[in-house]
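Email to the structure team, subject: Integral membrane protein model.

Hi all, the expression group asked for a predicted structure before they design truncation constructs. Nothing fancy, just the tokens so they can compare against earlier work. One-line instruction: predict Integral membrane protein, return tokens.
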Amino acid sequence: MSDDGIIHSFLDIDYLAYQPASCSLSSTRYGYNPSPAKAEPAASAAAIRVPVERILRRIASNMASHEVAPVDKLQNESYGWHFQFLTILGLSISTACFACGFISDMTNSSSFFTLKNYLALVAAPIEIVISILYWGLRAIDDNLVVPPDLPFPPFLYDLGFHLVPAIVLTLDSLLLSPPWPSMPMNPQAPLIMLATSTSIAFAYWYWIELCYSHNGFYPYPIFGILTTLQRVGLFAISGATMWVAGGALRAAYAYVNGFETVEELEKVKRAHKMATDGKWE
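Reply from the structure team: attached below.
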């Protein structure tokens, strides 16, 4: 699709009379080279139209360049697509979490609010682990997470992918979540959570090995460097780190919001039910 085709799919310009007479894309990857055009009488329309079209042309140019990029083509056509990357999986869960929160706020739905809170219990520890692993490995060697022949994303994008989700989900868990019991309702809950976290880590290992069997490459270079035993250690440590992150969030929640017992929460739940049913016990 041409740049103009992409632009017109984004913006209906029938309501604006201004149309640049000589605005052409340059041969460079990102920019374009507009030549001066005669000022139009409808200055207000032009003032709106020109910046918008320039932005859209820049977007179109970037989209066109990425459509033919060999790396993107390789990932787009590979087994597992971009969901081979732990970062993308984490962002997908985080997006689902905040989408449920947004729907809950817009519709006042308790069901979506509950779903959002349970998704956050998984999303927050995963994003924390992603941040620790990504920045920790980069501190050792950048080539452990990105092949040496590929560029890193711009720094702000990098923060948006690998740090901001962990920070936002942590703040959401501490400040915007309902009162969770500070002590587990099940005495075996810590062991259950450890087993769950480790299972998630090894499920991802199985997934990338499945993708490797089809594609012949790993999403992260470190997986090709480590031996099988070392990979077992890496994923075991990742699962344990996720478990520790979940426990740390629970402890931080108790510190910020106060100590919540199961009995107190049951009283609140019972009072809410009686108020909803209009029947007092």
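Confidence is low (pLDDT under 50) at residues 1-46, 62-70. The radius of gyration is 25 Å. Ping us if the truncation boundaries need rechecking.
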